[in-house]
Design a protein that fits this description.
The complex is a heterodimer.
Chain A lengths: L1 H14 L5 E2 L2 H11 L2 E7 L4 H8 L5 H10 E7 L16 E5 L5 E6 L4 H20 L1
Parallel strand pairs in A: 1-3, 2-3
Antiparallel strand pairs in A: 2-4, 4-5
Chain B lengths: L1 H30 L1 H4 L2 H5 L4 H10 L3 H5 L4 H7 L6 H13 L9 E2 L4 E2 L1
Classes of the chains: A alpha/beta, B mainly alpha.
């Protein structure tokens, strides 16, 4: 019974929805240019419990994951350690930046949000992009 | 006696301050929740400056920004959003804007709201 439970857990963890993270910022940028996508930069830091919570809950939600994987080339970067543009300012974490493929900031969001609110954040990014393209 | 008066005044002032903010949140819940998510998330749609600019640029800021959204416009026609309520809402939105208020995050020394 224990083995069956373990196998079941393993299978569910393998097939659970996951954001396709690029290995670093430059790879995310390259992918965005290649696939004509936007860039989603998740800035985290050491011992940031809300970053972990965001990654383990909201960013595991199937609906959110599908939306992110469809429209964005995503990357997680560690504040004060990994390379990413200086203009992506992160006084606190989790800091989320949404960029176009030319690295222009479309929108940003600070802090942990649940899947309902995160959905609205993604909608806002689209609205801001549409408004910018209109101008 | 003096101390008692001071405590009563302090309690009254903090309560009225809270009530002011909560009034704005109440208006948000009634008018905006359905399309913009929870109150604190909704307030973070814009920065303090963007909210200020929005309220400054128009006497009817909500009607102006929602003119392309018929459903929102319908809700705005029901006369709930009086001038007074609009002020409460502004106070709430500005106080909890993208670059103001508190969020669940960590700044290196502290993790919390």
């Amino acid at each position: 019974m224990k083995h069956l439970l373990l196998i079941f857990m393993l299978i569910t963890s393998v097939f659970s929805a996951q954001v396709e993270w690029s290995k670093d910022y430059n790879t995310a940028l390259e992918n965005a240019k290649k696939e004509d996508k936007l860039i989603f930069v998740f800035i985290t830091s050491k011992d940031c419990k809300f970053c972990k919570k965001l990654k383990e809950t909201t960013l595991k939600n199937e609906n959110i994951v599908n939306k992110i994987n469809k429209d964005y080339s995503s990357v997680i970067v560690m504040k004060d350690k990994d390379h990413f543009p200086k203009k992506l300012n992160a006084k606190a974490t989790p800091m989320l930046y949404f960029l176009d493929k030319d690295e222009n900031i479309i929108d940003y969001s600070l802090g942990y949000w649940n899947e309902v609110d995160f959905n609205f954040i993604l909608k806002d990014v689209k609205k801001r992009l549409a408004k910018r393209n209109k101008q | 006696m003096k101390k008692l008066i001071m405590i009563a005044l302090l309690l009254f002032s903090t309560q009225s301050l809270y009530a002011y903010n909560s009034k704005g949140m109440k208006v948000y819940k009634k008018m905006c929740l359905e399309c913009h998510g929870s109150p604190f998330r909704g307030a973070k749609m814009h920065t303090v400056m963007e909210w200020e600019e929005l309220f400054y640029s128009s006497e009817t800021p909500f009607k102006t920004i929602h003119k392309e959204y018929p459903e929102a416009n319908k809700a705005l026609q029901n006369h709930y959003l009086t001038e007074k309520r609009s002020k409460y809402l502004k106070k709430f939105l500005v106080g909890n804007a993208k670059d103001a208020g508190s969020v669940p995050g960590c700044d290196g020394n502290y993790c919390g709201y």
